[in-house]
Amino acid sequence: MMESPPMLSWMESLADAARARLLRLVERQELAVAELCGVLQLPQSTVSRHLKVLAHDGWVSVRSEGTSRLYRLAFDGKDPAARRLWALLREQIGATAAAAHDDQRLASILAKRRSRSRAFFSSAAGQWDRLRRDMFGERFDLLALAGLLDEDWTVADLGCGTGQIAATLAPFVARVIAVESSAAMLKAAQRRLEGAGNVELRAGELEALPIDDADLDAAAIVLVLHHVPDPVAVLRETARALRPSGRLLLVDMFRHDRREYQQQMGHVWLGFEPEQTEDWLCQAGFERPRVRALPPEAAAKGPALFAATARRANGNGKQESKVDGRRSRSRGQAENSRGERRRV
C-alpha cells in the first residue's frame, strides 16, 4: 500500500476554518485555552479538540505555566512545504471578516493582561524593592550591568585581591587579566576563579604592571589606590597598558578621618578628594575624568565611596580602532621586570 504524502495530512488538519483562525492567533501570541475561547467565541471543548488535532500534526506546541497551558505555533523543524502551505492559508484567512473580529478581541485580551500587570505594580510599588530582594538577592542588577561591556574586550582587574571583580567580568568579556602582588590573595583568587578559562592571574606590582603596552580595552581599580604610596605612578602605568580611549574605572573612599585604618589595614591614604582624583587622572594621561558619589548601603560601616571614570588620552584627538577586532601583541619585552605571570 502506497504511503500518503504528508501534504494530505497537513491539508486535513488545516481544512477547518476554526483551526485556521486558531493557528493564526497562536502564531501572533502565546495563548491559553480560555483566552482562545474568548477570541474565537467557541466553547472550551471545541477549542481543546481543535488544539489536539493541531498538536497531533505538529502545528502547535504547548508549555505549562502554573495551572495554565500556553499554546503557540510550532515551526521549528517544520517542512518547508508545510510552511508554504500555511503562508498561503494565512493570507486567505487574514482577509476575512472573522479574522478582523479575532484581531479586535485579541487586542482586548492583551490589554487585560497589561492591566493586570499594571495593577500589580501599582499595589506593590511600596514594597517592590523588598520583593525583588527576597526573590533574587541583593543588587543582582549591578552584576548584570557587566553585560554592557563589549564581548571582544580585554579587561584588567588591578589589585584583584580574591578575584571578586574578575569573576564578575569574566562571563561578559573575551579576556580578563587580574594582577595582584600578595601571594596569599593570588591563591584565594585562584580558588575562586578555577574553571574561568578566560582569566589570567598575574603576580606583579601596580607600579610595574605585567601587561604589555595598549593591551587593555578597560581597567578597574577597586578599593586599591589608598594602599599605594604613589597613586599617580599607578595611574600612569594603567594608562600605558590601556589602548587609546581605553576606559578606567576607579572606586575608592572619599577623604575621611579614620586614622585607625592605617594601623589596622595598612592604608596609606585616608581617602581622596574629588578634585585631587581628577587632577591625578589628568596628570597620568587620562581625559574626561568624572567622579561620582556612590549611594551607601544601609548596613555599611566604612567611609563613603566614589566611582571615578576616565579615558586614556589619544594624543592625536582620534580614537584608535582595532584591526580585525584584535591587536598585535609583542609580549615578552620587559616581562621579567614586570613580575611573574600565572594563568588560571
What is the compact description of this entry?
It is built from 13 helices and eleven strands.
Explain how this protein is built.
The protein has helices at residues 6-13, 17-28, 33-40, 44-56, 80-94, 97-124, 128-136, 140-144, 164-169, 183-192, 231-241, 260-265, 274-283; strands at 31-32, 60-65, 68-73, 154-158, 175-180, 199-203, 216-222, 242-253, 286-293, 305-312, 341-343. It is of the alpha/beta class and 344 residues long. An 8-stranded mixed sheet has the order 9-10-8-7-4-5-6-11, sandwiched between helices. Helix 9 (164-169) links the parallel strand 4 and strand 5 (175-180). The longest helix is centred in the N-terminal third of the chain and has 28 residues, at 97-124. The radius of gyration is 30 Å and the shape is elongated. Mean pLDDT is 86; it is low at 316-344.
Fold blueprint:
Blueprint: H1 6-13, H2 17-28, E1 31-32, H3 33-40, H4 44-56, E2 60-65, E3 68-73, H5 80-94, H6 97-124, H7 128-136, H8 140-144, E4 154-158, H9 164-169, E5 175-180, H10 183-192, E6 199-203, E7 216-222, H11 231-241, E8 242-253, H12 260-265, H13 274-283, E9 286-293, E10 305-312, E11 341-343
Parallel strand pairs: 4-5, 4-7, 5-6, 7-8
Antiparallel strand pairs: 1-3, 2-3, 6-11, 8-10, 9-10
Helix pairs in contact: 2-4, 2-5, 3-6
